[in-house]
Automatic annotation (TrEMBL):
Organism for this UniProt entry: Fodinicurvata halophila
Any single GO BP term: methylation
Full protein name: RNA methyltransferase
CDD domains: SpoU-like
Domain tRNA/rRNA methyltransferase SpoU type stretches: 8-139
GO molecular function annotation: methyltransferase activity
Region (Disordered): 153-182
InterPro entries: Alpha/beta_knot_MTases, rRNA_Methyltransferase, SpoU_MeTrfase, tRNA_m1G_MTases_N
Keyword Isomerase assigned: no
Top-level lineage group: Bacteria
Keywords from the named record: Methyltransferase, Transferase
Length: 182
């Protein structure tokens, strides 16, 4: 899969949810994890993060939205159930993205939503658990941006395997025009 992604949460307070989300981030191959204005107990985070994600990917803790720093060209994608958000199944994931989810029993703050480049929503009737919502977003990213064979017409048929990737011939690009062609 090309590109990279990170995932994080704003104002989360349930350590077990954060640990579950970190574990999922590790499983889906996130490049980094972050929190903004979190109120957590690290011991409880470790209880639910059985993969020890913090040992395998960088975890950044920002005290507030103003301190949130992302890599250059990384798009901030809010995940929130709002009327004007893009439905996740119709969303084109950026190559470089950081997904941010709101707290339990709350929403992304208006300031965070304003900071986002785009806001997407999972098409559900009501809000779902933050760890589950994050896992669904990461699954959708991997499904859309990964290299998988198309689904077969029947649910009883296995998909045809993909052809192996073949690299083309080496291309050498120069910054100056070839002087021998004049």
């Amino acid at each position: 899969m090309r590109g990279y992604f990170g995932i994080g949460v704003e104002r989360i307070s349930k350590s077990m949810n954060l640990g579950s989300l970190q574990r999922s981030a590790n499983a889906f191959g996130a490049s980094f994890f972050f929190t903004v204005a979190a109120n957590l107990k690290q011991r409880e985070v470790r209880l639910s993060d059985t993969s020890s994600a913090a040992e395998h990917l960088p975890v950044y803790h920002f005290p507030d939205i103003e301190a949130l720093t992302l890599p250059r060209h990384c798009r901030l994608v809010g995940v929130e159930l709002t009327d004007d958000a893009i439905d996740l199944p119709s969303f084109q994931h950026p190559v470089a993205a950081a997904y941010v989810l709101g707290p339990e029993r709350g929403s992304l703050s208006p300031e965070m939503q304003a900071r986002c480049d785009v806001v997407v929503k999972i098409p559900t009737e009501f809000c779902i658990n933050v760890a589950l919502a994050g896992a669904l977003v990461m699954y959708d990213r991997v499904r859309v941006m990964g290299r998988f064979p198309p689904r077969p017409a029947s649910s009883l048929v296995r998909p045809d395997p993909l052809e192996p990737h073949v690299h083309g011939a080496q291309k050498i690009r120069s910054k100056t025009p070839d002087s021998s062609s004049s």
